[in-house]
Specification:
Structural class: mainly alpha
Helix content: over 70%
């Protein structure tokens, strides 16, 4: 994500404020996403089907993580 900021045309005189604003914006976005996920997870844990579906959800997230690592490593070694 941080490599995308290089593509923007930023004036040198406002570089530090622009970088700070960009980084603060990214962090605020991450906090909002985490908050939403925690709220949804809190409601999901109270349902009767949580234990039944939690294992499947964990396996799906692990598979997605392994695929992402494989994708990144493939790009690293090929590029």
């Amino acid at each position: 994500m941080s490599s995308k900021i290089i593509e923007y045309e930023i004036s040198p005189d406002g570089l530090v404020p622009n970088l700070l604003a960009f980084n603060v914006g990214v962090e605020v976005g991450q906090l909002l996403a985490l908050s939403a996920i925690l709220i949804v997870m809190g409601f999901w844990r109270r349902t009767t089907g949580f234990l039944r579906h939690a294992y499947t959800a964990n396996v799906a997230m692990m598979c997605a993580g392994f695929m992402l690592v494989g994708y990144q490593l493939t790009g690293y070694f090929i590029a």
